[in-house]
Amino acid sequence: MDRLSVRVVVLGHVQGVWYRKHARETAVALGLVGRVRNMPNGSVEAEVEGAEERIQDFLAWCRIGPSRARVDRVLTESIPTRGYTSFEIDR
After folding, report:
1. Long-range contact set of residues 82-86: C-beta below 8 Å, sequence gap at least 24
2. Where are the alpha helices (DSSP H) in 4-91?
3. Is 7 tagged catalytic?
4. Of 7, 38, 73, 91, which residue is the catalytic one?
5. Choosing a second label site near 50 at 20 to 30 A (CA), which of 30, 68, 77, 79?
6. Considering the entire predicted model, what is its pTM?
């Protein structure tokens, strides 16, 4: 099974609503690795690596997010695999 890597940018009301924590929990449950962080412009950015089907499941979750979030848009792009071994929240 090929390992893919995707950068995800989530726009909307996604900071201060536990988006990163829930994104990490979702990614780990799906067997994905990578990182997630808040961006200065108010978005959340994640890099995820793993099986394509699992990444698609993660992206489906990203379009909804946690209950307090309001997701307006999710942007994705393929990126080179970085070789993550866990999924971390960047502070």
Report:
1. 82/5, 82/34, 82/47, 82/49, 83/49, 84/33, 84/34, 84/35, 84/47, 84/49, 85/33, 86/33
2. 19-29, 52-62
3. no
4. 38
5. 68
6. 0.95
User: 28-84 pLDDT, tens per residue?
Assistant: 999 999 999 999 999 999 999 999 999 999 999 999 999 999 999 999 999 999 999
* 20 included as an active-site residue: yes
- Please report, to the nearest 10 degrees, the dihedral formed by the alpha carbons of residues 72, 78, 84, 88 taken in order: -10
Side chain identity, residue 1? M
Q: Which of 3, 7, 20, 68 is catalytic?
A: 20
CA 43 to chain CA mean position, Å: 11
